[in-house]
User: Fold methionine--tRNA ligase from Pycnococcus provasolii.
Amino acid sequence: MASSLGRGSAVCSVTSAHFHMRRACSPSSPRPFLVRNPPRSSLRSFASSSASLSASTSTSSDSTGNFVITTPLYYVNAAPHMGSSYTTLAADAMARYKRLAGAHVEFVTGCDEHGEKIAQAAAKAGRTPQEHVDAIAGEYAALWRRLDISNDRFVRTTSATHRAFVTAFLERVWDRGDVYQDAYEGHYCVDCEEYKDEKELVNAAGEPEEGADCCAIHRRPCPIRKEENYFFKCSSYQSQVEALLSAEPSLVSPAFRRNEIATTVAEGVRDFSISRAASPWGIPVPRDESQTVYVWFDALLGYLSALYLPHAGADGDGNGDATRDVTLEEAREILEAMSTRGVEGSGGEAGGRELAPWPVNVHVIGKDILRFHSVYWPAMLTSAGLPTPSRVFSHGFLTKDGLKMGKSMGNTLDPIELLDAYGADAVRFYFLKSISFGNDGDFNEERFINVVNDSLANDVGNLVNRCLNLLRKNGGLSFPLSASEAADNLAKANGGEPHALVTTAEQSVRVSAAAYEEMDFSRALDAALAITQLGNRFIQELEPWALYKADEDAEEATLRAHSGIVVAMEALRIAMVLLAPAVPGLASRVYAQLGLDASVLRGGVVPLDELTAWGGLQEGASFPKPKPVFARLEEMVLSAKESANAAA
Ligand code: MSP
Assistant:
């Protein structure tokens, strides 16, 4: 290895840095290992991707209607927990909304399977790294099925296709002159797989202290490491990263996170190490197999390789259909073609395959990994000549007692336990509705039960059950009049003014769609629930059960009752379209209960405008015998544990 150091072999001890910072420490820094002129396409694609950022709304699909959305690729050191599930269910809600809105969605998730942290976890579990990653990746795939996650791709960074892309990508960056060799010394957090700045370190209690050596997230010591590695010249891309952050809309949402990262970037983007000598569990560095590719450089590329893997298919684990792995030669051709295609977003062929849509429209991530996505990743892509993502949405943490819930912290909430006790809709609904997406949120079982029961069991479940049973008893299992006639009848009784449920439904459609576009799930769901709340109040006031029993003007009273119920059911139908991205199971059950084809809620069949337009329920259309669509929740998980603990 020493022989490959060339003029860049001077060792520079730097104790302060998360990005490796040879430049910062040595004015007479060694020259990069290999320097070539940047490919023209890299400059062009960066410039045009910046332009397209300002021209479009940040979560809009590209001009061909593609929408690529990703979750982070999860570390497979331990079984998934509710914190990681949170990112995935938020991305899933967005993917489902976008499909409903007519986009061709590529929803990518997967597992980050290399690196020291994983190798250590495997050894601890008494398994080989491969056995370990296979087992945990299987747990992720199974959990996503239980949580009703509709991912289109499931990438594993140990796949041959991914490896080909990492190798081909690193070669491009290298050829661009952005890789050099150097030595580094600093505090390393294996849990974050990241060197830490001294100023970021805290003591074991989480307090800043002179000489402290613990990671602020994991509260564990970060021993000093000294390694000779390859480095990526991230610092060369400072101005491009700044341009992406200050563009309108910015690369990063929400705005307060954009400001945080912009402040860090203004202090100077520093180069970072992209290889590890001490971690054999990884992809070999293409021009020096004694080192492996740094796990973050490796994993970020999973967003790209995922799009060339087989469709996740019904089994959700990425192996649904058997297509050949992408070879190294093909990966090289594909990357070259993607770079020359610029930001058109789709079309074209290379390496015997159709080119995937690119760039990514939204990376959904937690706040702890923002720097990797909004600084390293755009710089890497620019270096390789590929368009940069349109948006990185950084959400907050789920906490328990104020601490980030996490595998390394051992304070996790088990999603399987929650799912066993309460089902996917309840879990999905609670986290999307009760945490403002972007901020931290604490889990509390009592609140969980109340929120879910209020909205799903009472507002939705009771409304549909009660109304359809009234119709069944007073006419039979079909709608006595259409939604349009029913609304006209109520308007006539209201001096010609449309009924409040009709106008609320119209308004909620607009508010909810705009909120989904902004990934403000809580507001999107509140808007939908405004319809069901009003529907319940309206039925309560109308008292159709009394109208059906009226002796005087019985015909007119029945018509009023029928009209009111049909209007309430049509409004509920529209609410279910808006709720479907969050509670797909419940929305389908309600649709089926209304006698409608629930497959339209998966999107791509009927335009969203049409689905949410008043007039879906038709006169004479039949519906099945009503049965409950959502069972009330009783406290089961934590309370059961607490009683067990108390008994022990
Ligand atoms: N492997 C990297 C990501 C590589 S992406 C190319 C990683 N994995 S992780 O499993 O540690 O975390 C994945 C995601 O889960 C991150 O977005 C992280 O913020 C999120 N969460 C992990 N714990 C969390 C909470 N307690 N709350 C909310 N999300 C959190 O980082």
